Amino acid sequence: MSQPLTTRPAVAGISIFPFRQPPPLCTFLFVIVLFVATFYTLHHPDAVTHSLLFSRNSHNALRLHRLFLSSASNATISSYLRELTRHPHLAGTKPSLETLNYVQSHFKSLGLETHVAEYEALLSYPTHISVTARFSNTTTLEFDLNDVPGDSSSSSPVVRPYHAYSPSGSAQGNVVFVNHGEERDYRALESIGVSVKGCVVLARKGEILGRGGIVKIAEAKGALGVLIYAENDGGGFGGIERGTVMRGIGDPVSPGWPGVVGGEKLSLEDELVTRRFPKIPSLPLSLRNAEIILASLGGARAPLEWRNSGRVGSGQRVGPGRTVINMTFQGEMKMKKIHNVVVTIRGSEEADRYVILGNHRDAWTYGAVDPNSGTSALLDISRRFAMLLNSGWRPRRTILLCSWDAEEFGMIGSTEWVEENVLNLGASAVAYLNVDCAVQGSGFFAGATPQLDGLLVDVLKLVQDPDAVGLTVEETFKSQNNIIQRLSRVDSDFSGFLHHAGIPSIDMYYGADYPVYHTAFDSYDWMIHNADPLFHRHVAMAGIWGLLGIILADEPLIPFDYISYAEQLQVHRDTLSKLLEGKVSVNPLSMAIQEFSLVAKEAADEAKKLKEKSYSKDDVAAAAKRRELNDRLMLVERGFLDAEGIKGKEWFKHLVYGPAAEPESKLGFFPGIADAIAINASEGVIEHEIWRVARAIQRASKALKGGFT
User: What is the pairing mode between strands 397-404 and 350-360?
Assistant: First the structure.
């Protein structure tokens, strides 16, 4: 149940009227603030030409930041989310076009320069699904595979739970429970004499393997089909988690190049396409139905290491026994047009440098959390940016606001856009700021490339915590979490920007997890009763996200800290050295990181001297030095890219942060090295991968230092 409005104290800068417009007094005061800001702008034209105005430490910059924060309205964000979640809007369907039109019309109504980037992509939809269990010669049960809430008022149908890109087909066989479906789980089964060959496997989704990885391993072990359940069950309602099982990201029929309308598309029989899809069918299952199957299994007891882990008790049997599953999935692959909406706010001095804020808007169902909590925040940021523009503000650099399509099928919209613009991104992109699920619950979480750590923490100090009166987000983050994760995972739209194009990135969200993930219960009603009844967390996230964009776009010197990056690389090197136990030398890494540290210190000293100089528009020499340093700061991340990419996942080019090809890799960084260790490669192969990373760090050092050898 949501809290009564009268029980939550007011928080400065955050409206506490979530379901109606602010009262007249608040509106009047805000108009006065805008009037004063406009008057100041008109009578002090030099103040908006990016002299001292938008230095992060200046009085005027603080005024701008406060104006941005004070223009927040949780009532407005609530109305955006309500509108976005009226219907399910799966990518490629008619309701998704209605959502597209809503977002596009919103941007245009604000007078923002808006265009749509259109692509063609192969998407996957279900036509028939069924799962039947036979527990004995006479007892048969057909499972209900729907999870539509009983009070659903939408006229648009919710897609039945399925796995996108699963091959059509049927599988019948005895059931074997494989825990999380990892290689180590199969080894544990083998140790007690259990094989899955010719069987249907039942797996519970864990933290290491995604759906595609679970199916890939089961296929290699000889299984006929796969059922996957999540241990959260939609908040007790019997929700079923949809998702994709495609390997890799982006449009499968235009791998490595953009799927522009009329462009080259591979046939479904092409080996580059078929290797992206599993060979055996799979389906999602509710926790309730999974427990029915688990309770019926005979055979050996679960391996000792599984017991007392989650719901696997000491008495759990793993099969195979007399329980037989008959599962069927029939689907269709269709070429569909997908649409990215891009807003351009032109920079006043460095219009050819881009700060990019992105969120996807397509959803498996209603998508209140995933992704439209983020879409609502993006729409509110655009509203506030429009207010600032009308008051005379212009960002120094260009800001792009991007609404991606077809993320749920495998980050398709953002990936196609990155592939189409990869050269311009490499030359001109400052940073990519991603918010997918803006609000899942309580607590702020973030992942970032290390040069952005300090900026992120500084911004958190400016935003008041939505759950602790009188404290900033930075104060609660420091006491509750205080860990900025690294972005090696591939689960949202930052992947193409960082892993393929080498763009410094941040990904942020409120709440570690939520029970209605990818189910029909991810609705506006669930949001207002559970995750954010008063939309205070939405307001906080929009404030953090928007301020990051403003500062990165406005500050004369890009606020990147490569000393922090060097320190993080050193920590990674130490962790790797401990794992290798002296069997392979990490000296190449040590030397490369030492060089990077020295160059980072030189760049920091150079930036400090430039900041100490009084800035003047007419000082052409100083402006040229700033521009030249900014170029070097911006290009460093590109140095970590390698043309050959990660072995087995060559599209992913980043050698420091990227997805490991081997699920059991023990490092969350240096993916090539991690894979070599995971497959017990020879010392020579591991050493080669160490040298590859060392050379990447050396390239980054040269980019930061500038000039030529």
Answer: parallel
Under 8 Å between Cβ of 488 and 450: no
> What is the sign, positive or negative, of the torsion defined by CA atoms of 277, 282, 283, 286?
negative
* Residue 286 in this model has a pLDDT that exceeds 60: yes
CA atoms within 13 A on the CB side of 350: 26
Write the pLDDT tens digit of every residue in 104-137.
Answer: 999 999 999 999 999 999 999 999 999 999 997 7
For residues 537 and 39, give the distance between their C-alpha atoms in angstroms, rounded to a whole number: 33
CATH of residue 285: 3.50.30.30
The answer to whether residue 58 scores a pLDDT higher than 70 is no
What local confidence, expressed as pLDDT, does residue 35 receive?
Answer: 38
Please report how the helices 24-43 and 59-70 are oriented relative to each other, as an axis angle in degrees rounded to 10.
150
CA distance 203 to 226: 7
Residue ending a domain, choose from 331, 352, 372: 331
Report the alpha-carbon distance of residue 478 to residue 480 in Å, rounded: 6
The C-alpha atoms of residue 519 and residue 161 are separated, in whole angstroms, by: 8
Give how many domains the chain has, as a whole number: 3
- Active centre residues (catalytic): 407
Domain identity same for 151 and 82: no
Q: CB of 560 within 8 A of CB of 451? A: yes
Taking phi over 0 as left and psi of -120 to 50 as alpha, with beta for the rest, 248 belongs to left
Residue 131: CB atoms within 10 Å: 23
Q: Same structural domain for residues 421 and 539?
A: yes
Residues 568 and 649 in one domain: yes
Question: Are residues 319 and 193 part of one domain?
Answer: yes
- Single out the residue of 104, 103, 542, 96 nearest to residue 363, CA to CA: 96
CA triple 285-291-297, angle to 5 deg: 110
Task: Tell me the per-residue pLDDT of 424-444, one tens digit each, with 9 for 90 and over.
Answer: 999 999 999 999 999 999 999
The answer to whether the beta carbons of residues 625 and 640 sit under 8 Å apart is no
Question: Does residue 318 share a domain with residue 197?
Answer: yes
Which domain, by its residues, includes 81? 5-121+336-554
**Do the Cβ atoms of 374 and 420 come closer than 8 Å?**
no
Q: Which of 281, 305, 331 is the last residue of a domain?
A: 331
Regarding whether 373 and 317 lie in a shared domain, the answer is no
What's the whole-number mean pLDDT along residues 355-373?
98
The contacts of residue 209 (CB under 8 Å, 6+ apart) are 180, 181, 182, 217, 663
* Together in a domain, 319 and 362: no
The answer to whether residues 203 and 280 touch, using CB atoms and an 8 Å cutoff, is: no
pTM of the model: 0.91
Q: How confident is the model at residue 32 (pLDDT cuts 50, 70, 90)?
A: very low
Lowest mean pLDDT among 115-129, 173-187, 293-307, 584-598: 293-307
Q: Do 300 and 231 fall within a single domain?
A: yes
Task: Write out pLDDT tens, residues 523-577.
Answer: 999 999 999 999 999 999 999 999 999 999 999 999 999 999 999 999 999 999 9
d(CA 421, CA 417): 6
